[in-house]
Amino acid sequence: MEKHELWQAVLSKIEPALSRPNFLTWFQGTGVMDLAGGTATICVPNGFVREWLQQKYHKSLLHAMREIDTDIKEIAYVIGQPENTGSMFKDRFLRRKRPSMPSPFMSDDMSIKELSVNPETSLNPRYTFANFIVGSFNELSHAAAQSVVKNLGTTYNPFFIYGGVGLGKTHLIQAIGNEVLTHHPSLKVRYVPSEKYMGEIVDALRNQQMGALKEKYRAVDLLIMDDIQFIARTEKMQEEFFHTFNILYERNRQIVISSDRPPQAIATLESRLRSRFEGGMIADVGLPDFETRFTILKTKAETKEIALSEDVLKFIAEKIKNNIRELEGALNQLIMASKLSAAPIDVDAARKIVASHAAAPRKFLSHKKILKVVADFYDISERDLVQHSRKKDVVRPRQIAMYLMRENLKTSYPSIGDKFGGRDHTTVIHSCEKVAQDLLINPDLEDELKAIRERILIV
User: Fold this and answer.
1) What is the pLDDT of residues 320-329, one digit of tens each?
2) Binding residues
3) Which one of 1, 86, 226, 414 is most buried, counting C-beta atoms within 10 A?
4) The whole model's pTM is what?
5) 3-class DSSP assignment, residue 293
């Protein structure tokens, strides 16, 4: 197989798992430069792309290549211009049909979201404080967000909010931007997901427009950066954001940041950025309780002017516990069924409609699940956890994994040691005691363990 044919086949396997903007950002201008000695040398346009592909897509690329050519054992990355790849990439997307209008099968929420985003700020006007449901799981972050609006750039700067997927972080941070513009429409506000920000940097480097991009972000009064943990995977992206952060902070411009974990738990985050994030206000969004889930469903149903009994709403709130997006998805299924059916939706009908949730097997806690969640949380491999590495960024997660196995599974010390490469039981005892002692003096560690336990419930 020719080099360009191999790469086109690899792209065909990678593309479905990515959004179009991400795929274009990270794979345009790439190609296979050489195939020799079991190594495929991939050509990339610049250092940012090389670092990102190595950090995030290396395993996927290697797996795709091995499926196509079993002789390929490794991938190397070099900066340069591949032959014919530009035209191949262009032709590939010219042939793709792009819809001119939202699909009629798209949910109402999705259609509105896509059509109503402000092109200047990238804020979605649907995300406001008025329609944000407050419960015990998010009342601190909600109160802090409102304080940020009233004291822009002073009281809580930066404001760092973290929590699991689908718990309302994006809604809350965008609500800050929308509320600021309501009271101060002349201020410059910009919301950006970190992956989009990184894509803009790559494009600016490619087109030699870094100066304009820097000015775009350093001239704002409020910068809202979503999912900052992705930036932490590349040193060069952190470098660029660090300088932007400093300039905004020195000018008393407000910075709002979200992540799926607290700063100290982002293993690859540079210490200088971590210290700046921790210098402001840090708040978490936990799992919603039953009352909050029921209130969310009732409010959404009333907004959509759909009559559903409280018994039906309580049934959904009881069955779906860990994710607000999943909760709203189930409600949308019921709404669609209600529109198509002449009969009212009762609990029995609701049970059938959300059967995928109600009939899901109970998720049991296991050693493997703890290992996986801890490894994913700290951006390290499961192999690193169980092997005899003494690196600082591995030792602490390993101790936490041991502690969780002991506390949650009541596993014996020797058995835990066996699961970590045959370590002696005294090592496990020391690890568990170390975490227990740290919990007494370090409240941040309790936040980490809380976030990890919530992930374990979802996985």
Assistant:
1) 777 777 777 7
2) 166, 168-170
3) 226
4) 0.60
5) helix
